[in-house]
Amino acid sequence: MYKMICIRAFVLLDRRWSILLATVLVLCAGSEVETADPPPVVFSRDIAPVLRKHCLACHGKTKAEGDYRVDSFAMLKQPGESDEPPFVPGEPQSSEIFRRISSEDESERMPLEGDPLPAELVKKMRQWIGAGAVYDREDPLLPLASIVPPVVHPFPPEHYSRAVPVMGLALIRAADQLQLFAGGYRELLVFDPATGKLLRRIPNFPQRIYSIAPSKDATRLAVAGGNPGQVGDVRILSIESGEVTSVPMTYADVVLSVRWSPAGDAIAVAGSDGTVTMISTNEMTTNWSRTVHKDWAKDVAFSPDGSQLVSVGFDRQVKLLAKKDGKELAEFTEHQNPVWSVTFARDGKSVFSADKSGRIFRWQVEDGKKIAQMRTNGTAFDLIASTSQLFVAAAGRRVTSFDLNSHKAARQFTGPKGKMISVVLDLEQEIAVSGSDQGEIVVWSTKSGKQTVSWSNAPP
Hints:
The protein has seven helices and 28 strands. By secondary structure, the chain is mostly beta strands. It has three domains: 2-35; 43-147, no CATH class; 169-456, Methylamine Dehydrogenase, Chain H, CATH 2.130.10. A hairpin with a 5-residue loop joins β13 and β14 (308-313).
């Protein structure tokens, strides 16, 4: 109809009105576009990412303001303390969730005390509810974070304004060269540990990387991290190509620890929601997931034979679990402070766990009884054991090695300015590498105790 009117106008008008005619044509075309139906809004693609980014931090499993949660579609449908229906299919104006995100009253509008949602996102919510609030997945109990397509993270900056805290470290012998993988800002930084030279930068990771675990055959890495309060995930990386090959798990908040099983068939994951999850690395599917801790699940570790794992949390608990099904086998209860790190002894008969006060306990797997106690100066952030020594990265700006026969401090590795928050070993090269909260990476000889090289965890 619009096109017919425009053609007739062209026949009747003099050429002197060609400019006006052009304007009419544009307006006619614009009218046609506006009358076209907008593309459908899909929950997992268009709505779930909005809820995850803007709502989940205050309306999740561990924190539910107004007694309302959005961490799954099933919870999204349940009223909060107001008893108003969150959404009424086909009726946006009768839906509490739409009313709150579109309100002009700052005391009611969500996100509370935050910027209002962009108009385009509010429009999508209105359209989704108006079209019937359809859920496009089968299971409404699935965690919201798990149904959102994997995030393609922004590229890291070319240069950092300051070095990044070194929370994740891994030493890997690949291509006949020992390489150090460190968590950067939205990327992995790969260094030569002998010189500190930057070898590679691997992008497509979240803001913070908390844990890096190599597979036994040194072909893949499992990397855990996240954007605090928004999203976290576990990413599987090909070491050779640097390509992210799989994202088997997405969380509503950060993922704090990941460990590869000795057999290479599974990875264990500790999340900030207190869960411990076992993922098959063959199918990249979840074998089981359990809420083990009442606060952050901070670290996990496999036994040398791979049949058990131990997890620790900020709830001061240490739990021994069966790898097969997550069944609790034992509990160690002597920590009086949040527990930061855990590792098995090389023989698998005992476990070391370290807490915020700097106390490190060694306890028996068989009955959960304490064998010994050690102490560092300040929070013991990370542990790793050799056959004869335990290396502890701690807040006292040092790494301490303890003799595992006497359980006394054998050597202090000093020099950094910041708190030492991560530590890894290479027994063949006889080196210990540690990272600080100030972005320092330091390499020591485990034989002499002397520092061999140090550098900043940042692109040069």
